[in-house]
Design brief:
CATH superfamily of the largest domain: P-loop containing nucleotide triphosphate hydrolases
Largest sheet: 7 strands, mixed
Shape: flat
Structural class: alpha/beta
Bound molecules: guanosine-5'-triphosphate, magnesium ion
Distance between the termini: 18 Å
Strand content: 15-25%
Radius of gyration: 32 Å
Number of domains: 2
Number of helices: 18
């Protein structure tokens, strides 16, 4: 097993930057580059005295210092003895020094974590240095020179998984925590990293393993099958426990996948109704150009924001209408493509004037999608005004807003959150897309097993389905997972995690 190293903090300047080293040689490498505070101080003093020794005026003083230097030099090369005393999970103050050219790179704090009490369950060293690209790169280069290899993306977490410290759902949760943009997304990731998903999947899988064991016993000892295998009891467990739990998890995915993936919300409407104005006021910044000229927005503009805890990917679009302008035509084409992809459309009309045939044409092109109708420019109309909505539009949730004066936005945000279905999410156990596909396979296999038992099919067939269901669940927690799937999962991590 190699010893890996990487800069664990984001690039750029900051208070602290961390270099992480993990593997069998982590402690040796850390000790080879780290000098304790005393060693650094003596070294500094001696370096001064070196010049003093050459300086005829202060020979007497420097004499002692030169003697000190000898002592320090010994201890400098004696660091193994010193470092042998260093303990796990203690913080050591010192410096990183390159013994090749006697250069001190930075003042640092060092933590050693002895195996198996570390993130990877290997020996780990963490060097907290000042954060700047040059200093961190210099330390990393020195660490690599001492025998470490540069870590692949996600390799620390992959080692934690391979060494049995976490299961695959917990490894994925590490990435979710890093990527979480809202508190709700963080809550899901935190529940998963605590092992919530793992425990749930394990308990369903254990039920299936129990049934498979009984079924296989019935295959091996058919004469005893009548006594050992209670088909009714097995069907009861499969249908009322296993299938029900798999269904709940699958519906949780549908209800709350937005919390993981972000809810894609697109603002559509004819030109000049105020789409870009709404985009700007939801973002609280002048992101899109706003003018009184119809056809101002030509391209798709996309931004991420947090609405009631839901990560929302908000898109402003070119106004939809019949146009001969080739640039606008391209913009409208992009709007139509965006409409196909969106989870929710904010259909905006100008409520200060009667609806037009263009509004109706826009409605026709988006009616198949989940809609919220926005009656914008409500500031321009009298208080008792009622927008005349065609009956054919049915019951679309409607919000009166003024993008210019920021009115009606709270109600709009509530409706967006409601449309995301997040209010129906009671459990924080939300499968991701990979889990969902494995859950579906497991669900199909368990359903087939239950049907086979009811139809008194041979136990051999039942056991094949059960095994398939067990393997699919094992994939989720990483018991039965192919190496290429693992590579795919960890390649999405950043380096140093
Ligand atoms: N009074 C009033 N004016 C508004 C409101 N919202 C937008 N406007 C004005 O309407 C005009 C058009 O606004 P935009 O936000 O550019 O409209 P748009 O739908 O993005 O227009 P296109 O990009 O051309 O499709 C601008 O002059 C805005 O100031 C509103 O709520 N009240
Ligand atoms: Mg616009």
């Amino acid at each position: 097993m190699t010893t890996i190293a990487a800069i664990a903090t984001p690039p750029g300047t900051g208070g602290i930057g961390i270099i992480k080293i993990s593997g069998p040689d982590a402690l040796k490498i850390a000790n080879a580059v780290f000098r304790s505070k005393a060693e650094c101080r003596d070294r500094k003093r001696v370096e001064n005295s070196f010049y003093e020794c050459k300086d005829g005026k202060r020979v007497e003083n420097s004499f002692y210092e030169c003697r000190d230097r000898k002592r320090v030099e010994n201890s400098f090369y004696n660091t193994d003895a010193e470092s042998g005393k260093r303990q796990s999970h203690h913080l050591y103050h010192g410096c990183i020094a390159d013994d090749a050219d006697n250069r001190i790179i930075d003042e640092v704090l060092l933590t050693l974590m002895f195996a198996p009490h570390s993130y990877t369950r290997e020996d780990v060293a963490e060097i907290q240095a000042h954060s700047g690209p040059a200093v961190l790169r210099a330390i990393l280069e020195l660490v690599l020179k001492k025998g470490a290899v540069l870590a692949e993306p996600g390799e620390f977490t992959k080692r934690a998984y391979l060494n049995g410290r976490i299961d695959l759902t917990q490894a994925e949760a590490v990435m979710d925590i890093v990527a979480a943009k809202t508190e709700k997304s963080l809550e899901i990731a935190a529940a998963q990293i605590r092992g919530g998903m793992k425990k749930h999947i394990e308990s369903v899988r254990d039920d299936l393993i129990g049934i498979l064991t009984e079924t296989e016993a019935a295959i091996d000892f058919p004469e005893d099958a009548g006594e050992t295998l209670n088909a009714d009891a097995i069907t009861e467990i499969l249908e009322n426990r296993v299938i029900r739990q798999l269904k709940v998890l699958l519906s949780q995915y549908e209800n709350a996948r937005f919390l993981r993936e972000g809810l894609s919300v697109l603002i559509a409407g004819k030109p000049n109704v105020g789409k870009s104005s709404l985009m700007n006021c939801l973002l609280q910044k002048d992101r899109a150009i706003v003018t009184p000229v119809p056809g101002t927005t030509r391209d798709i503009i996309e931004e991420t924001l947090n609405i009631r805890g839901i990560p929302v990917i908000l898109t402003d679009t070119a106004g939809l209408h019949e146009s001969r302008d080739p640039v606008e035509i391209l913009g409208i084409k992009k709007t139509r493509e965006g409409i196909c992809q969106a989870d929710l459309i904010l259909f905006m009309v100008d409520s200060s004037e009667p609806l037009t045939a263009t509004d109706e044409a826009v409605y026709e092109s988006i009616r198949h999608k989940k809609l919220i109708l926005l009656a914008n420019k409500s500031d321009l109309r009298p208080d008792n005004f009622k927008l005349d909505i065609p009956d054919s539009w049915g019951k679309i949730p409607l919000v009166n807003i003024s993008a210019l004066y920021e009115r009606g936005l709270d109600e709009l945000k509530d409706l967006i959150a409601e449309a995301a279905g997040c209010f129906h999410t009671e459990s924080p156990l939300i499968p991701n897309l990979r889990h969902k596909s494995a859950l579906e396979r497991s669900f199909e296999a368990v359903s087939a097993a239950a049907d086979a038992i009811k139809a008194s099919m041979p136990f051999e067939l039942v056991s094949i389905d059960l095994q398939e269901a067990i393997d699919a669940l094992g994939e989720i927690i990483g018991i039965t997972v192919k190496p290429d799937v693992l590579d795919q999962i960890f390649s999405r991590f950043c380096i140093g995690k």
